[in-house]
């Protein structure tokens, strides 16, 4: 009988320890996830064809994006952008500053615009990336999450109504029209 009691206690403790897997936490009500496969070939004009010779070194850039939008107040949202990119310039590949440290990502946006065309308006979401706060890629790859990005009620309403009519883009020092781009898809 003592063995049965010990087994029951051990199983109970095991079940409590596994609660996250047995009862995973549910997403925040109204939370939405958008995804995209991004590449330099989707940029208009394509990365590497924007008039800067070193831009051709980023032409093969590609990766994935996940945007999680969570309602905040007044119809606004807060977003987290997680992206993974490869095939950017590596440190030492170009001996000229600032590229001697790797690709330099200087901006990130969500724009309105259909696949294959240019932006049809101003950016509706801007990531906190700039020439004074860039993302530098010494290994030629990036795996990054940027959280707490404000999305206005108007932008959130438009994006969520038709995600595929918006695209995400990152811009670099040598591909200022965009180093990667991808249309948004609701997951």
If you had to describe this structure to a student in words, what would you say it looks like?
By secondary structure, this protein is of the alpha+beta class. The chain has a single domain (27-186), classed as Immunoglobulin-like (Sandwich). Helix content is 16%, strand content 35%. It contains 3 helices and 10 strands. The protein has helices at residues 2-17, 19-22, 153-161, and strands spanning 32-39, 62-71, 77-86, 103-112, 125-126, 135-137, 142-151, 166-172, 180-183, 185-186. Mean pLDDT is 88; it is low at 4-20.
* Major sheet summary line: 5 strands, antiparallel
Q: Give me the secondary-structure category.
A: alpha+beta
Q: Give me the CATH architecture, please.
A: Sandwich
The coarse silhouette is: globular
Helix-strand string:
HHEEEEEEEHEEE
Helix content: 10-25%
Count the beta strands.
10
State the strand order across the main sheet: 7-3-2-1-10
Total separate domains: 1
User: Whole-number average pLDDT?
Assistant: 88
Supply the number of helical segments: 3
User: pLDDT below 50 for ≥5 consecutive residues: which ranges?
Assistant: 4-20
Under CATH, the topology can be stated as Immunoglobulin-like
Radius of gyration: 21 Å
The CATH class label is: Mainly Beta
Terminal-residue CA separation? 51 Å
Proportion of beta-strand residues: 35-45%
């Amino acid at each position: 009988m003592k063995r049965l009691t010990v087994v029951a206690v051990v199983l109970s403790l095991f079940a409590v320890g596994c609660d996250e897997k047995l009862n995973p936490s549910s997403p925040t009500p109204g939370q939405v996830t958008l995804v995209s496969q991004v590449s330099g070939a989707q940029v208009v004009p394509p990365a590497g064809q924007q008039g800067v010779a070193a831009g051709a070194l980023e032409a093969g850039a590609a990766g994935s994006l996940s945007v999680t939008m969570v309602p905040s107040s007044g119809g606004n949202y807060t977003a987290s952008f997680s992206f993974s990119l490869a095939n950017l310039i590596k440190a030492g590949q170009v001996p000229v500053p600032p590229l001697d440290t790797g690709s330099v990502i200087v901006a990130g946006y969500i724009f309105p615009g259909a696949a294959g065309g240019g932006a049809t308006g101003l950016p509706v979401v801007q990531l906190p990336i700039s020439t004074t706060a860039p993302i530098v890629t010494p290994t030629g790859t990036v795996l990054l999450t940027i959280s707490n990005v404000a999305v206005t009620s108007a932008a959130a309403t438009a994006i969520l109504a038709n995600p595929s009519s918006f695209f995400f883009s990152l811009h670099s020092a040598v591909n200022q029209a965009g180093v990667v781009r991808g249309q948004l898809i609701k997951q």
